Amino acid sequence: MRSRIVVLVALVALHATSGCTRSSEGASGAPSASVGAVTPVSSRTSSCDRVTAMSVCSEYSGAYLAQNEATFSARCGKLGGVFVGAECPNTNVLGSCVLSTSEVRKFYASGGATYDAARAETECTGPYKGKWSALK
After folding, report:
1. What separation, in Å, do the N-terminal and C-terminal C-alpha atoms of the chain show?
2. 73-113, pLDDT tens digit by residue?
3. What are the C-alpha distances in Å from 135 to residues 52, 60, 76, 102, 119?
4. Are β-strands 131-134 and 56-61 bridged in parallel, bridged antiparallel, or unpaired?
5. Alpha helix positions (H), the chain
6. What is the pLDDT of residue 88?
7. φ, ψ of residue 14 in degrees (nearest 5)
């Protein structure tokens, strides 16, 4: 009986010192995902290119894109645009307007409703209540 107790104590001691502890690191030493862990939002960008029809293009990214991508894609075509998994075109851009939603709306000096810088800034800061950045 005494030898069984000694063996049992030895096994408990061995288990306690063997490194069988919970850790947030995987085998590579890097943090591993755990249940309930927050996954970072993708850094990809998609856009609704309506330059040809309306001289604007809207960029979406982060959580706003992840939560609304199906809606953006469906609505873009109805507004005369093309939804693509890339940033807006950089040709003839007058500036950009950052909206409270994190959408970046770019205004163009080409397309169906050509803007000039003053009109684009007024539209951004007025009805959209955004933050205007002129192209430099």
Report:
1. 86
2. 999 999 999 999 999 999 999 999 999 999 999 999 999 99
3. 20, 19, 24, 18, 14
4. unpaired
5. 2-17, 51-54, 62-78, 117-125
6. 97
7. -65, -45
